[in-house]
Design a protein that fits this description.
Number of helices: 18
Number of domains: 2
Structural class: mainly alpha
Oligomer: single chain
CATH topology of the largest domain: Growth Hormone, Chain: A
Strand order of the largest sheet: 1-2
CATH class of the largest domain: Mainly Alpha
Helix content: over 70%
CATH superfamily of the largest domain: MFS general substrate transporter like domains
């Protein structure tokens, strides 16, 4: 491609998105630049504090448990209080709890605060996803989620390198640095991001005056649980998460058992972040308007069999090759699946739906280490990698079955699923304050005569 072609492709990749999205994107990048606790928690506890690996594992598990607990709570808050208040509370609380963790010395206090950090740091995710769905047009959402995922990986890659240098001198500085950057995110949200929560839809009925329209019933967690297609997607998300998490759980253990050093594992896993930064945007341009059913099926197979290839890896380059395969699956799966979640979520229940989806990843973060440890210890690495192939096949079949007769974006916006809005849909322009752009928001009216 010529330089001009590359410039045109870059402009097309970022054009047409509202200003509020870019402030949200910037807050994601800043937040991930400060990711210290999740990366260095185990090293901090074992090397700096001198605790056992068992205790470190317990603390990391509690951190993950906090994420499971907060996912649903944050989803409810996102719908009831709004996206902006939830983000402010979550990020300010994260800044406080991360700073507090750096000063804890007693084991019980460390464990309790780690649970709190897990809860607060995970609480912003449903609000971010719901706000992104609110302010971005349906046809641009896959691209928007891909750009956000790109920011997550770019920020994490930079922070891992910088935080590694900081940790050589002071772990406390790393905790305080993450707290400062997270607090900066809270300020950015408060200053630049308007509230985007749509008004509850109204349907024909008798109001207090005996005429007009009444609000649609509130979407509750029970509504989400009864949504069979969506809960199927949540289950498949859990399966896919189990596969992808073997990159940080099963792969280092298997490579260590095969005689590779931590530095060699670091080189191999660095391929994952590098490829995401390089390929996420161009690959998204290629898949953006393609059939999500086929994309999710292909990505599930690439993920499962990409990890399964590890069973046949010998030299270091072979391990790196397997990482290339499942990283491509990750690049395709993440924005496509996020777009599907929004597509299946009623507009006024996006927070709860996003909270349930977020919980699938949080639960997988607890199960994946146990799964890898048990299989590696009792059966061996070949069984672990074989199981990823099976899981990938199951996920691919599940996506193929669940996404039959999937409503298009317009039907999804009008409430085709539980908690949605029946009847005709009138689209009105809702100005997102401070963004300079108007987004199309559907409002239910009386059915056509």
């Amino acid at each position: 491609m010529s330089v001009e072609s590359l410039r045109r492709a870059a402009r097309e990749s970022v054009s047409g998105l509202p200003r509020a999205f870019w402030w949200l994107w910037a807050s994601t990048l800043v937040n991930r630049l400060g990711a210290f606790v999740a990366t260095f928690m185990t090293l901090y506890l074992t090397l700096d504090r001198g605790y056992s690996a068992t205790f470190a594992g317990l603390v990391v598990a509690l951190h993950g448990l906090g994420g499971v607990i907060s996912s649903l709570v944050a989803g409810v808050m996102t719908d009831r209080l709004g996206r902006r208040p939830t983000l402010l509370v979550a990020q300010a609380s994260t800044a406080f709890s991360v700073a507090l963790l750096g000063f804890m010395e007693r084991p019980a206090a460390i464990a309790a605060v780690a649970l709190l950090v897990g809860m607060t740091s995970n609480a912003s995710r449903p609000a971010v996803s719901a706000m992104m769905a609110d302010i971005v047009r349906p046809e641009d959402r896959v691209r928007a989620f891909a750009l956000n995922y790109w920011a997550i990986n770019l920020g994490f890659g930079i922070s891992a390198a910088v935080a590694g240098l900081v940790a050589q001198y002071s772990y406390l500085a790393g905790f305080l640095g993450e707290a400062a950057l997270t607090l900066a995110c809270a300020v950015l949200v408060y200053a630049k991001l308007p509230e985007s929560r749509p008004e509850r839809a109204r349907r024909p009925g008798s109001d207090a005056d005996g005429k007009g329209f009444v609000p649609e019933p509130e979407v509750r967690l029970g509504t989400v649980l009864r949504d069979g297609r969506f809960m199927g997607v949540v289950g498949l998300s859990f399966v896919i998460s189990l596969i992808f998490m073997q990159g940080s759980v099963g792969l280092p253990a298997a490579m260590g058992a095969a005689g590779f050093s931590p530095a060699e594992y670091g080189l191999v896993i660095a391929v994952n972040g590098l490829l995401i930064v390089i390929l996420q945007i161009p690959v998204t341009r290629f898949i953006e308007h393609r059939d999500p059913r086929k994309l999710l099926v292909v990505s599930a197979l690439l993920a499962g069999y990409g990890f399964a290839m590890t069973a046949f890896a010998g030299p270091l380059w072979a391990y790196a090759l397997t990482v290339c395969v499942w990283t491509l699956a990750e690049i395709v799966n993440s924005p496509t699946q996020m777009g599907l979640v929004v597509r299946l979520s009623p507009v006024h229940g996006r927070g709860r739906y996003q909270g349930m989806y977020t919980m699938s990843w949080a639960v997988a973060s607890l199960v994946a280490p146990l799964m890898a440890g048990i299989v590696l210890d009792r059966l061996g690495a070949h069984w672990l990698w074989g199981s990823t192939g099976v899981l990938g096949t199951v996920a691919a079949a599940g996506y193929w079955l669940l996404m039959r007769n999937l409503p298009d974006d317009a039907d999804a916006e009008s409430g085709g699923g539980p908690g949605g809005r029946a009847g005709a849909v009138e689209t009105v322009a809702v100005e997102v304050a401070g963004t300079g752009t108007a987004g199309a928001k559907p409002v239910a009216t009386a059915p056509a005569a």
